[in-house]
Each structure stands twice: as structure tokens, then as C-alpha cells.
Specification:
The protein is of the alpha/beta class and 232 residues long. The protein has a single domain, classed as Phosphoglycerate mutase-like (Rossmann fold, 3-Layer(aba) Sandwich), CATH 3.40.50. It has eight helices and six strands. The chain has helices at residues 15-19, 32-47, 61-73, 100-112, 121-131, 140-160, 172-182, 216-226; strands at residues 4-10, 54-57, 81-83, 164-170, 197-203, 206-214. α2 crosses α3 (61-73), α4 crosses α5 (121-131) and α6 crosses α7. The protein starts with a strand and ends in a 6-residue tail after the last helix.
Length: 232
């Protein structure tokens, strides 16, 4: 019997990613480089002959744009697509748009007197709330509950629809948080690349991690382009 398997993609490289700004709930489109990288990913998935029954994204434009490019490249653009705001990126409140170096390399380390790599997810969330002057940043309890319930609902839907593969496009910190919630031994602060694929299976109400941050599909797609198998 087929398993429920979720292919969870970090969206393509955006304008804010390129200039090193925290995106959060703000949104910028993919750059030309970002679009090419996701096209590579779609070609790699096609070459691997991975077919999807359903597609899911957050409600952010950058994830929807990413999904459209993937599905067109692997010729699966007609599968059902659902947007779910629960799998959005973390909300940085008034710090949305701040430079990553100042937020993660300056503000948070100054609050806790330790390097960002040594902070727990709860400390990061608490620190962002502490310095958010607008009062928009989410608590750690809110973040982990919405992420968990969002991905759980997706997995339950795929399973109830007969199992199989689903493709999900989400965000770097959101995916890293999910991996940690599934297995707390997962290293914190995962630096997931744009267009990376993390794979989890779902069975008997439980997730199992198969891969985190896999770039092999993108690399294969890049090889195909460079060898002239497809037009860029």
C-alpha cells in the first residue's frame, strides 16, 4: 500500500533573500535567479519520475510562485492546490524587513548574551516578541501549534484521499521548526537552501523524517539544463 509522503520545499530565492532581509509575513517575489533555481528543481523531480496527487502552499505569494514553476516544469500543473496560512513563515512583527545580520546576529544575541546558534526556538520567539514594537510577533506556543496543526491537517487530507505523494511549498524557519517538532534531536538553526526538499512520511498518526534539505533534485535539473536537455 502506498505511503503518505510529503515533499516539503523551501520557496525559491526572493528579493529579500538576496539582500539579506528577514521576510516573515512580508512578501517579495522570486528573482530571476530564484526562478531558475526552482525550474531546476522541477526538472529534477520530473527526471526522478515523482508524481504528486495534491499540492499545498502557504498563502504567501513567493510559495505560490514557486509551486507554479515546479508544476509547470514537471508537467503536473493540473493537480489540486490548497493554500494554508498555518504553514506561513514565522512572523517577525515590526522586525519584518530588518536585515538578518542585525536581527539574528545582533538583537537576539544581545538579549540572551549568547550566539544565535545556541538559542532555542522558544528563546528566538520570546526575543522577537520582546523587541517587536508593534505587538504583532507570535508567541512560541502559537508558532509551534499552527505549524504542527497545519502540516498534520495536510497529512491527514492526503491520507484520507488514498495516500501517495504531496508537494508542499513553505518557508525556511517553518520547515526547520516542523523537523524539530517531529524529532527534537534535529539540529536547530537549519540553514535550508532555497529550493531544497525535505521529505517526511506519515503513518498511523506519526511523521517520520526521510530527508532534510535535499538539494539533489535541483542539482540534477541544473545538470540537464547545462547539457542542453531542456531550454532555460
Amino acid at each position: 500500500m502506498a505511503k503518505t509522503r510529503l515533499y516539503i520545499v523551501r520557496h525559491g530565492k526572493t528579493m529579500f533573500n538576496t539582500i539579506g532581509r528577514a521576510q516573515g509575513w512580508s512578501d517579495t517575489p522570486l528573482t530571476a535567479e530564484g526562478e531558475r533555481g526552482i525550474y531546476e528543481l522541477g526538472l529534477g523531480l520530473k527526471e526522478a519520475r515523482i508524481s504528486f496527487k495534491e499540492a499545498f502552499t502557504s498563502d504567501s505569494g513567493r510559495t505560490v510562485q514557486t509551486l507554479e514553476i515546479i508544476l509547470e516544469a514537471c508537467q503536473q500543473e493540473f493537480i489540486p492546490h490548497t493554500r494554508d496560512k498555518r504553514i506561513r513563515e514565522w512572523c517577525f512583527g515590526s522586525l519584518d524587513g530588518a536585515y538578518n545580520g542585525e536581527l539574528f546576529g545582533g538583537v537576539l544575541p544581545r538579549i540572551f548574551k549568547k550566539d544565535i546558534k545556541d538559542l532555542t526556538y522558544q528563546e528566538i520567539a520570546d526575543g522577537i516578541q520582546q523587541v517587536d514594537t508593534a505587538g504583532w510577533a507570535e508567541s512560541w506556543e502559537t508558532i509551534k501549534e499552527r505549524i504542527w496543526l497545519g502540516f498534520l491537517a495536510i497529512a491527514d487530507k492526503v491520507e484520507s484521499d488514498g495516500r501517495g505523494n504531496a508537494i508542499i511549498v513553505s518557508h525556511g524557519m517553518t520547515i526547520a521548526t516542523l523537523m524539530w517538532l517531529i524529532d527534537p534531536k534535529t539540529p536547530k538553526g537549519l540553514a535550508l537552501d532555497n529550493g531544497s526538499v525535505s521529505v517526511v512520511t506519515y503513518e498511523n498518526g506519526a511523521f517520520t523524517i526521510e530527508k532534510i534539505g535535499d538539494m539533489s533534485y535541483r542539482k540534477e535539473g541544473r545538470r540537464l539544463l547545462e547539457e542542453g536537455e531542456y531550454e532555460n
